[in-house]
Amino acid sequence: MNTGSPDSTKVTDLRRYLKEFLMDPYVIDMPLPLRYMLVNWRILPRRPAESAEAYKQIWTEHGSPLIHYCKQIRNALRDRTDAPIEIGMAYGNPSFKSAIGKLLDAGVDEICVLPIFPQYAMATVGSCVAGVTAEIKRRKSATTIRVVPPFYNEPAYIEPLAQSLAEADEHILFSYHGLPLRHLKKTDPTRLHCLSSAECCSEPSIAHDTCYRFQSLTTTRSIVKKAGIPEDRYSVAFQSRLGRDEWLQPYTDQMLAELPAKGIKRLAVICPAFFCDCLETLEEIEIRGRELFMNAGGESFRMIPCLNDTSAAIQCLESLMAEAGHWPEA
């Protein structure tokens, strides 16, 4: 499973996709009447046209890069097992509902759900698991659901990312997808730990099992340790914020505009919250992020690709499912 993409770059398709995405209570966690008014009265009248232009910048002959990479991953995994494998997007097509239908038609009695999100967030992993669970219940199926947990610190994910930085001689910016701070508090099972102090991510707690900030910082530490990157050669920031609420900081766009004035003129950006390149990496970072940095006085800018459908990506996912006991032998 992954987030998904619109069917095309047409404004009508963007409006349909954004409505499905933003009306998810795991994404915009407001009471339904408020969420409805925000999405339908404030966002949808203007946002689809803006998003359509952004998607046009990255659309390929295969369509959406994210969907293309996910299909390639599915095909590669199918070659490694006789078990049926489908892809399902949380929003848009191919939908997770369609994927579940195909698997049930194949007669499976257990479904392994692999949300391809390295770190836990209620808007990603939480939403995927809730959606699959609800769909199985709606179909009145007795099929068992098994979920592969987030893999933010798994060697199978860390090692290829560290390898991608092995020869980097620029300053490295780790840019993660942002989250509203209220999401961190909502997913804290203790309701007392997350954001309770500046050192909350350094203090042991069961809250870390579902804390996006802790898991993102852990991913960063593991990658730089494996790649041998000193502390003065990397920074961490969070991108893609929406609305006026306070989100995880520092913000990527602000940092990109400020780094050249601090003497950092050569930059490589890696986005470890994304397994496959998508709008947030290819348009927000590769295009707009580059422009921000270079216009602020930067001299060179390089985006490190996600794992996508590389052999390292396939081996990573196969390893994760095997470790979780869900990978059937061919």
Task: Fill in the keyword field for this structure.
330 residues; alpha/beta; Rossmann fold; four-stranded parallel β-sheet; two-stranded parallel ribbon; 12 helices; 6 strands
Structure commentary:
The protein is α/β, with parallel strands linked by helices and 330 residues long. It has a domain at 155-303: Rossmann fold (3-Layer(aba) Sandwich), CATH 3.40.50.1400. Helix content is 44%, strand content 9%. It is built from twelve helices and six strands. The strands form two sheets. The chain has a four-stranded parallel sheet with strand order 4-3-5-6, with helices on both faces. β5 (266-270), α11 (279-295) and β6 form a beta-alpha-beta unit. α7 (155-164) packs across α9. The chain is globular. The two termini are 22 Å apart. The model has no long low-confidence stretch (mean pLDDT 96).
Q: How would you summarize the topology of this molecule?
A:
Blueprint: H1 11-22, H2 32-43, H3 47-58, H4 65-78, H5 96-105, E1 110-113, H6 122-138, E2 144-147, H7 155-164, E3 171-177, H8 181-186, H9 212-227, E4 234-239, H10 252-258, E5 266-270, H11 279-295, E6 300-303, H12 311-323
Parallel strand pairs: 1-2, 3-4, 3-5, 5-6
Broad CATH class of the domain at 155-303: Alpha Beta
Find the count of extended strands (DSSP E, 2+ residues).
6
Helicity, as a percent range:
40-55%
Which class best fits the helix and strand makeup?
Answer: alpha/beta
Terminal-residue CA separation: 22 Å
Q: Which series of helices and strands comes N to C?
A: HHHHHEHEHEHHEHEHEH
Q: pLDDT under 50 segments (min length 5)?
A: none
Rg measurement, Å = 20 Å
- Describe the strand arrangement of the main beta sheet, using strand numbers: 4-3-5-6
CATH architecture title of the domain at 155-303: 3-Layer(aba) Sandwich
CATH topology of the domain at 155-303: the name is Rossmann fold
Could you tell me the strand content as a percent range? 5-15%
Shape: globular
**Major pleated sheet:** 4 strands, parallel
**Arithmetic mean of pLDDT:** 96
- Counting DSSP H or I runs of 4 or more residues, the number of helices is 12
